[in-house]
Amino acid sequence: MIPLVDLKLQYQLHKDEIDAAMQESAAAAAYILGPNVKALEADLAAYCQCSHGVGVANCTDALHLSLRALGIGPGDEVITTPFTFVATTEAIGILGATPVFIDIVPETFNLDPARLEAAVTPRTRVILPVHLYGQPCDMEPVLDIAQRHGLRVVEDCAQAIGATYRGRTVGSMGDLGCLSFFPSKNLGCFGDGGMVVSNDSDAAAHVEMLRRHGGKVKYHHSEIGLNSRLDDLQAAILRENPATLRSGTTPDGAMPPATRSSCRERPASCFPRRLRTCARSTTSTPCA
Ligand SMILES: Cc1ncc(COP(=O)(O)O)c(C=O)c1O
User: Fold this and answer.
1) In order of start, what are the domains of the chain with their CATH numbers?
2) Site to substitute for ligand 1 among 4, 56, 60, 128, most atoms within 8 A of C-beta
């Protein structure tokens, strides 16, 4: 079997920094929405070319709360792709809205903008493109159609953090972008985690409220929300993750080569070697 990612190796390579960060967070005892969450929100928002970052419990909640922040509910239609993880559609269904699927471009696996306009109805409120396998969806026509029809755009960036489309980072092109920190994602923590990034101050503030039981101030709840907060411990780990920004980004926002750690490159380097032998062998052995 060829592993897609080696989480044990990733931890071993950066064990000292990660352990120290976890101990520091534990000692500070600001476990919920602590200083590491705040720092990560600022770093990741900047990295995604956004002015706001709101840490949440996972990307499923990021999608759900983004749609809630835009007022999506029963009777509304959200156009998206059927070729995605179930969470994309789940976030629409949980609000009682209707997912409207359009087919994908076979070369990119992302939704086909040529089919988009025909799917718009008077009930359409949002377009939800998914940037699958690290490959951005063709956003120019998506944004153009959204603008012409007065629709909002929520980007599912769970698989594509840091990917760029014509100089723009995914998550910054629509109204809100949703990130996943599931352990095997490009930027993973040691459990579940997610974030909403946005350049829309109102929408970001609304998500911030919704993630905390619908209240801005503790024990004052203006609407029904969710308990969907990012732990300080997870944020501390994410800040030490070699794939993240702690190690620094270049002025143009790109990751410096040194941070593209061997924890991802080593398993990836197995592919050409292992695939060469596939034709000759039916046995499967793990990559060293
Ligand atoms: C495209 C896509 N969207 C959403 C999600 C949900 O992410 P999370 O597990 O953080 O809720 C995933 C997770 O695999 C995904 O691949």
Assistant:
1) 15-258 (3.40.640.10)
2) 60
Model-level pTM?
0.88
Verify whether ligand 1 is closer than 6 Å to residue 88 (CB atom): yes
Q: What is the pLDDT of residue 254?
A: 47
Q: What is the pLDDT of residue 65?
A: 98
Distance 187 CA to ligand 1 centre (A): 12
Centroid of ligand 1 to alpha carbon of 282 (angstroms): 32
Amino acid (one-letter) located at 120 = V
Which parts of the chain sit beneath pLDDT 70? 242-288
pLDDT digits (tens, 9 = 90+) for 124-142: 999 999 999 999 999 999 9
Q: Which atom of ligand 1 is found nearest the CA of 62?
A: 11
Best mutation site among 159, 170, 231, 234 for ligand 1, i.e. most ligand atoms within 8 A of its Cβ?
159
Work out the burial of residue 146: count CB atoms within 10 Å of its CB; fewer than 13 is exposed, 13-18 middle, 19 or more buried.
Answer: buried
Cα 78 to ligand 1 centre (Å): 17
